[in-house]
Amino acid sequence: MHHDTRPIQKHPLNVRIFHYILLLSFLPLAATGLILFFKPLSQEAMQLTFDIHIIAGIVMALDAVAFTLMAFDRVVLFIARVFSFSIRDVKWFMVLGGYPQKFLLGKKVPVPPMNKYNSGQKLFGACVLIGGTLLIISGLALWLVPHAMPRDLGYSLGMIHLVAGLILTGFLPIHLFLAVYRFDDFKAMMIHGNVPYHDAAEYTPLWVEQEIVAVNANPHRSSQ
Fold first, then answer.
1. Residues 142-167: pLDDT tens digits?
2. Contacts made by residues 104-109, CB under 8 angstroms, sequence distance 24+
3. pTM above 0.85, yes or no
4. Which of 25, 85, 91 is nearest to 59 (CA)?
5. Mean residue pLDDT across the chain
6. How far is CA 111 from the centre of its chain?
7. Distance from CA of residue 145 to its chain's centroid?
8. Cα–Cα distance list, 202 to 31, 68, 78, 112, 134 (Å)
């Protein structure tokens, strides 16, 4: 079967840089957060863990703020994509994108056509947007003004920080596994930004039909 390998840009450079910094800050955040929760180390080691947690949190917060200010149009478009919902999303979740059937049974089941992000990626994106915002706000408040807020507010922010962190940490191994499984998409996000046409047409046909083909037909438009 012939594969059309023409490149389609899916992740431009500024998105890839943002993703790199987000990944490199969240991994130590998740690891140190779990250590701070279970407290398995000595007092000196726990203090070092806390310091690493704070530094990584500051890096993640600066990354998010900088990208929002410098690429606000992309942030708005990403929000619109991940919070869109249709019957296709219901059908996608009914078969979980066909991944369990493929991995466990070795068979392929029909999956509803997807746009630039599939339903699982949209759910993860919504969790990152909401959970990441809650992590940054609660983390900064707990770090900068822990004694200047009412006790109940401090407890509530601590619980929000914990729950948001655990949810995102739980999503992380699934996200990493599926990212590597979709290796063309992984290379696009981590290396050159492009996916081959055949990969985009197979996994994101609505994006290709509604946006990529339209761009090719009208060179004055640009796909995002």
1. 999 998 999 999 999 999 999 999 99
2. none
3. yes
4. 25
5. 91
6. 22
7. 29
8. 35, 31, 21, 11, 35
Pairing, β 7-9 against β 194-196: antiparallel
Tokens matching residue 49: 């863990």
Q: Which two tokens stand for residue 100?
A: 């369990």
Tokens of 16: 């890839």
Length of the chain (residues): 224
Sorted by sequence, the CB contacts under 8 Å of residue 153 that are 6+ apart come out as none
For the CA atoms of the chain, what is the radius of gyration?
Answer: 20
Outline where DSSP puts E strands in 108-193. none
In the block, residue with structure tokens 């493929």: 102
- Tokens standing for 103? 């991995």
Cβ neighbours of residue 197 under 8 Å, at least 6 residues apart?
A: 4, 5, 6, 7, 8, 208
**Percent of residues in the chain assigned helix, strand, coil, to nearest 5:** 75, 5, 20
For residue 50, what are its two tokens? 């806390």
Using DSSP's 3-state secondary structure scheme, residue 57 falls into helix
* Beta bridge mates, 194: 9
